[in-house]
Amino acid sequence: MSVLSREYFHNEAAAFEHVESILWPGGPVCPHCGCMGRVYKLEGVYTKPSKKNPEGVERHGLKKCGECRKQFTVRIGTIFEESHIPLHKWLQAIHLMCSSKKGISSNQLHRVLEITLKSAWFLSHRIREAMREGNLGPIGGNGKIVEADETYFGKKSGPAPTMTTSGKPFTKSGKTGPAHKRAVLGLVERGGAVRTFHVEKANTDNVAQLVTENVHHESALYTDESRLYTKVGARFADHQTTKHSAKEYVRYEGDAVIHSNTIENYFSVFKRGMKGVYQHCAEKHLHRYLAEFDFRYNRRIGLGVDDNARAFEALVGVLGKRLTYRRTHAV
After folding, report:
1. Which of 275, 313, 120, 288 has its CA nearest to residue 198?
2. What pLDDT score does 173 carry?
3. Where are the domains of the chain?
């Protein structure tokens, strides 16, 4: 039987029950006052009639708090709050985004879910917000290997610079190198988690700060020959490099296998997804796409996490996160 044939992907009442079982494992909790004991279920409540729905729409999952006397559903305080999209379609979208290795575009969600493109775009960004991980400790540790590398994806807005980051003029005719592209720093623990960052400039100071704050100093740091890692590498238990300019991509020293191919492979999946699926991404949203690819990589099959478990963890992450349309200037 298909995974998408499950009842909560098609039935609104079942969708509410599914989300409640994940977000309220100990029973309903009032988001207004935090009460758990005196919560009542309201049944047979409908919205006001409209031209589209002359009899109104049943309000599934509606509860009332016996303490503060306010009504609520499991949507409140989550990415689903104030959304007119049915909850079962949200669950379909979450499963599709979690099970697609390189992502699924807003246009595809728009066609599959039969919602507007604007709604599909906003829905996907809310799900990426649920995938975002915060309050993370350093990766690696004693006896563990962390690979670090930087990559460049997409052009920055505005005119291209005429000087390099060190203040020297470009010497290649008409070529600006990576200076006018968006820089991404990646850190990955071998056999473990990845962590990526969009940085304004991939210079020595920015890279050193991020590597120092996100990698245990007892770790062995493996990088390419880039001078960005020369000084910061001395802060770790070991720092080994491979010389890509000499076509050295892996080196063996005793039992040590020295390379940065793991993070390179991650960047390969990321770029294939961004170029082949999403095709365009504004720089201000790049960190959300990085969070999406990090989330899937850190919950991959190789770590024993299948599509269903991945979607479950994404649902756990919806609590306490909101994204709203925000206008900077009044129309």
Report:
1. 288
2. 53
3. 3-131, 145-297
